[in-house]
Amino acid sequence: MAAQNRRPPRLPTDDEITQAREASRQLARLLPSGGDDAATPVPALRLVTDDNQHEMIAIPPGALRLLVDMLTQLGQGRAVTLLPQNAELTTQEVADYLNVSRPYVVKLIEDEKLPARKVGTRRRVAFEHLLRYDEQQRVQSRAALDELARIDQELGL
Q1: How far is the C-alpha of 17 from the C-alpha of 12, rounded, in Å?
Q2: Dihedrals phi, psi of 50, to nearest 5 degrees
Q3: What are the residue ranges of CATH 1.10.1660 in the chain?
Q4: 15-to-25, 56, 75, 103 alpha-carbon distances in Å
């Protein structure tokens, strides 16, 4: 899937938020309570369309969990984007994800802190590399905050 073919996420309407909240609550009851998704069967869902057509659909537990997560986010009024793990993002999409400027992302790439590849003159970042970088940054931030808290305790602040 090429990054430029994805449409930007759209904020849900008030009606969609209400529908997503209710659907999330209903589907969450079907999630397996154990940790092993493969061992716990999920009942097939029956979808009914506006014209009363019935359709039975079996959804794998992982997909059902993803659907519940997406509906939960929509129910909170957030836009949702679904990306395959092997997706590649533009530097602007990476900047939007990290909430930083595009030139900052370019500097991260040039400093080899964030892996990327060139497609012509454009840079592309694998989504999995972005997730790994983001998690590393979160770990470093947590460690720095823990250190500051320790110093505050030592100084009695």
Answers
A1: 6
A2: -60, -30
A3: 88-155
A4: 16, 26, 10, 38
Question: In the numeric block, which tokens belong to residue 87?
Answer: 């997706």
pLDDT category at 102 given cuts 50, 70, 90 is very high
State in Å, rounded, how far the first CA of the chain is from the last one: 52
Which tens digits make up the pLDDT trace of 40-92? 666 667 777 778 777 777 777 778 888 999 999 999 998 888 877 788 999 99
Output the pTM of the full model: 0.56
Q: Where does 112-157 have alpha helices with state H?
A: 127-155
Please give the structure tokens belonging to residue 74: 């929509």
Phi-psi label, residue 20: left if phi above 0, alpha if psi -120 to 50, beta otherwise:
alpha
For domain 88-155, the CATH class is mainly alpha
